[in-house]
Write a structure and sequence with these properties.
This protein is mainly beta. About 10% of the residues lie in helices and about 30% in strands. It has a 7-stranded antiparallel sheet, with no helix packed on it. It has a 6-stranded mixed sheet with strand order 15-25-24-23-32-26, with no helix packed on it. Strands 13-12-11-8-14 form a 5-stranded antiparallel sheet, with no helix packed on it. The longest helix has 15 residues. The chain is globular, with a radius of gyration of 25 Å. GO terms for molecular function: transferase activity.
């Protein structure tokens, strides 16, 4: 049975949480406590490929296990997204527009947060979907200076009214734009195979990307129809304002944003649109393209033990004279095959590379073969092994390692997770998976908002595996408890774990209906 047929029999679930150690959001989804009941179906209520669609007209449109608001929420559609539905509602009950059964499972109420009118302004306006084929599923940017979140395009006068010292800012931007907006080679520049394994080196120079592409555009700099003469789409942000508002709030420095559109407005100024249909002037943004670091496919000649260089100034050494003679520099994040031999010279512990040179073990994150595998490592069962001391993640299928990489766990190491920024230890299971979700944290020492963090997989309370496009320090503890991965690795792990992500959905929750989530084994 293929994945789509299997998923059509499942009831799916998602849970939107607010970051590591975060609280459940108002969109929190109840865990399933029992298998879905069979509902007698009129053939016209059953969705079929190529059939009519229903779309989300608010930031999230819940999908219910049954055609009943009292039923558990098993998923949601992201604003602007659509899913195949049945031709007729399956029930009305407490939904005046009717509950439509959708693919691959569940029911959406065609009222309030969802509509079957494909000409609805939100469905016409928010057409850009996350690109699941890329490590960075949207164009991303970080706020370089406190920026306004405009509700509609601001006139020149309004820009000067709401942005302090704007004259000086624009003068500096005009002079330094090329430097300020310069980009580096990013995660999406690395070629990947169908599983998400890197199959080639990134280019030596960053691509020459126009502002249109950097900030989420479609090649047209004209003000879109829904912002001409004011705002012509409803507010879907959680920040509520009256329809006549010019600005919603301000975005703090260092905040991370995902972008779905851009245009040039009044004052000859470019604006970018975020996923909740608010606007930010791009002169106050810095494009973020994510690290090119990635792990290795263990089925392609690699074996344990191996290591990843985790410091910028690492060297390999010739120890033939029982001294540390530099034998060459090691590139940051380079994977190195080890022999398993180690030695000490004075206070320095070294490990041997396959080419006969030696590395300081403090310079590398080392993936080793465990002396004893856990009891659940049987047959082809998928499980994830994470070592806090080694800062290593390994994907296993039974006893066979299939992928290994360096990660960044809680910055307080083996401390008490209840009292420190440490990662929980124990055996867990993936509870739910999200293509993107919003997180708040104190990463890099300042509290800042992280909207649409990619490839989030919660496994215990607010602890998750997720991409961390805001840093490149994989192999070192630095998070507030979550497991930080590079965008390439986060997508690779996300696409490998169970339960699988269904088409058109933004997430899936493990349950009796969907099957178990992949085991996550975290140890010292």
């Amino acid at each position: 049975m293929d994945a789509r047929k299997r998923l059509s029999l499942l009831a799916l679930g998602v849970l939107v949480l607010a970051g590591c150690k975060g609280k459940g959001s108002p969109e929190g989804i109840v865990s399933l406590s029992a298998p879905a009941e069979q509902v007698a179906a009129d053939p016209a209520t059953v969705p079929k490929e190529g059939g009519p669609r229903i779309g989300a007209v608010e930031m999230a449109a819940p999908v219910y296990l049954k055609p009943d608001r009292r039923s558990p929420k098993i998923g949601y559609l992201r604003a602007g997204a659509t899913a195949v539905r049945g031709e007729k509602p399956a029930a009305f009950d407490d939904c005046q527009g009717g509950y439509y059964r959708v693919l691959p499972a569940g029911y959406i109420c065609a009222e309030g947060s969802a509509s079957i009118d494909m000409k609805h302004p939100i469905l016409r306006a928010l057409t850009r979907r996350p690109d699941l084929a890329k490590p960075m599923p949207y164009p991303y940017a970080f706020v370089r200076a406190i920026a306004p979140n405009y509700y509609r395009p601001a006139t020149k006068a309004e820009q000067f009214q709401y942005e302090m010292r704007l004259k000086e800012h624009l003068r500096s931007y005009k002079r330094l734009q090329k430097k300020w907006d310069a980009i580096e080679v990013g995660a999406n520049d690395v070629p990947l195979d169908a599983e998400g394994n890197a199959i080639g080196e990134p280019p030596t120079e960053a691509p020459d990307l126009p502002d249109q592409e950097l900030y989420g555009g479609d090649g047209n700099d004209a003000i879109p129809w829904f912002f001409q003469g004011g705002r012509k789409i409803p507010n879907i942000s959680t920040f509520k304002v009256p329809d006549y508002a010019i600005i919603t709030n301000r975005v703090a420095r260092h905040a991370g944003l995902a972008l779905i559109g851009t245009f040039v407005g009044d004052n000859d100024r470019r604006f970018a649109m975020t996923t909740d249909a608010r606007l930010v002037p791009t002169s106050k943004l810095k494009p973020a393209r994510g690290s090119t670091f990635h792990g290795v496919d263990m089925r392609k000649g690699w074996e344990l033990p191996l290591a990843f260089v985790r410091v910028p100034d690492a060297y390999k050494y010739d120890t033939s004279k029982r001294s540390l003679e530099k034998a060459g520099k090691l590139a940051f994040h380079t994977p190195i095959q080890l022999t398993g031999k180690s030695m000490r010279i004075g206070e320095t512990r070294l490990v041997e590379a396959k080419d006969g040179t030696w590395l300081k073990d403090s310079d590398v994150a080392i993936a080793v073969k465990p002396s004893e595998l856990p009891s659940f490592a049987a047959k082809t069962k998928k499980w994830i092994d994470i070592s806090i001391l080694s800062q290593i993640l390994i994907l296993y299928e039974g006893t066979k390692p299939v992928y290994a990489t360096a990660v960044a766990t809680g910055r307080d190491g083996l401390g008490d997770p209840k009292k420190t920024y440490s990662t929980v230890r124990g055996t867990f299971k993936i509870r739910e998976k999200h293509v993107t979700t919003t997180m708040d944290s104190h990463e890099v020492g300042n509290k800042f908002e992280l909207r649409d963090v990619p490839w989030v997989q919660y496994f215990e309370a607010g602890y998750a595996l997720h991409a961390a496009p805001w840093h490149d320090e994989y192999g070192k503890p630095r998070s507030h408890g979550c497991i930080n991965l590079s965008p390439i690795d986060a997508r690779r792990v996300f696409m490998w774990t169970d339960p699988p992500l269904p088409t058109d959905w933004h997430g899936v929750q493990a349950s009796e209906s969907t099957g178990e989530g992949t085991v996550v084994n975290i140890h010292p």
